[in-house]
């Protein structure tokens, strides 16, 4: 089971998570997501990181519209 929790919401399933990162790649051509910490136990893993980059594209919402950030 694949899950991703972000300040903007939660994503479940591999395709949903890949879609989320695809939106970031389209909006931030120089975006990075370094791993700050990780925990692995049996068949489960948790990874924490902070995404950063310069917004130089269009940041789409899940409904395909431009998104606003605070």
Summary keywords:
alpha+beta, two-stranded antiparallel ribbon
Describe the structure.
This protein has 70 residues and is an alpha+beta fold. 20% of the residues lie in helices and 30% in strands. The protein has one helix and four strands. The chain has one helix spanning 14-27, and strands at residues 3-6, 9-12, 35-41, 44-49. Strand 1 (3-6) and strand 2 (9-12) form a beta hairpin.
Structural class: alpha+beta
**Share of helix among residues?**
10-25%
Strand content: 25-35%
Report the count of strand segments: 4
Mean pLDDT: 86
Low-confidence stretches: none
Radius of gyration: 13 Å
Strand order of the largest sheet: 1-2
Largest sheet: 2 strands, antiparallel
Topology:
Blueprint: E1 3-6, E2 9-12, H1 14-27, E3 35-41, E4 44-49
Antiparallel strand pairs: 1-2, 3-4
Q: What's this entry about, in short?
A:
With 70 residues, the chain is an alpha+beta fold. The protein is built from one helix and four strands.
């Amino acid at each position: 089971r694949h899950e991703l929790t972000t300040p903007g919401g939660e994503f479940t399933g591999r395709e949903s998570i890949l879609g989320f990162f695809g939106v970031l790649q389209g909006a931030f051509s120089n975006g990075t997501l370094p791993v700050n910490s990780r925990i692995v136990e049996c068949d489960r893993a948790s990874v924490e990181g902070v995404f950063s980059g310069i917004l130089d594209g269009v940041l789409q919402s899940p409904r395909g519209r431009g998104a606003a950030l605070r």
